[in-house]
Amino acid sequence: MTESQKEALETLLPVLGVPADCNDLRTLFERPAPLIVEIGCGNGQAMAWMASNEPEHNFVGIEVHEPGVGRLLRSLHDQGSSNVRVAMRDAVEVLEQQALPASLDQVRIYFPDPWHKKRHHKRRLIQPPFLELLAERIKPGGLLHLATDWAPYAEWMLEALAEVPVFKNQGSPFLPRPAWRPQTHFERRGERRGHDIVDLLLERQ
């Protein structure tokens, strides 16, 4: 962790962080606006870009990696974004304890760890129980946006989604990268390795 990231965690997380006693993410913002949650925002590159390019939305970024959170906080401060709050906690805990049912307009999960080895597949984030939790927290008509550069994980996602029929696929089965998703570090690395980039967009019925 760099000194700048350490300083950001010390000085900016108390201002831009999600308090532990928050039980409704929507109350973190002074204005009413559609609420988008990004799970696993990594080094914050995508979140900072989205916050700047979608000022009409409120955002909550969830990430446990401290250097990544520090970098995101620094980026938000430097660009003057006031529409983002950051939760440095496990995503399941945040969703279960701090998001009310049908309170989220969108959830975005970009390039989660594919856990390539078969014996590690149980560690993958996208599993039917997790999707059921997302279905409870996303409002009807809301969106779930997934992206991966690992084709077998994309197929896994489709199989898991088939067990949660309240999500209706908006692609056939995949779609081109939507304009609101910037290219990420992981995406460019995947492209250099010859991986296909896959986007899945699901509407909560």
Element pattern in H and E: HHEHEHEHEHEHEHE
| CATH top level assignment | Alpha Beta
Question: What order do the strands of the largest sheet run in, or round the barrel if closed?
Answer: 3-2-1-4-5-7-6
> What level of helicity do the residues show?
25-40%
Mean pLDDT: 96
Number of helices: 8
Question: What is the number of E strands?
Answer: 7
* Bulk shape: globular
The number of domains: 1
Question: How would you summarize this macromolecular structure in one to three sentences?
Answer:
By secondary structure, the protein is of the alpha/beta class. 36% of the residues lie in helices and 20% in strands.
Keywords:
205 residues; alpha/beta; Rossmann fold; seven-stranded mixed sheet; 8 helices; 7 strands; globular
Report what the structure shows.
The protein has 205 residues and is α/β, with parallel strands linked by helices. It has one domain: Rossmann fold (3-Layer(aba) Sandwich). It has eight helices and seven strands. The chain has a seven-stranded mixed beta sheet with strand order 3-2-1-4-5-7-6, with helices on both faces. α1 packs across α4 (66-79) and α3 packs parallel to α4 (66-79). The longest helix has 14 residues, at 66-79.
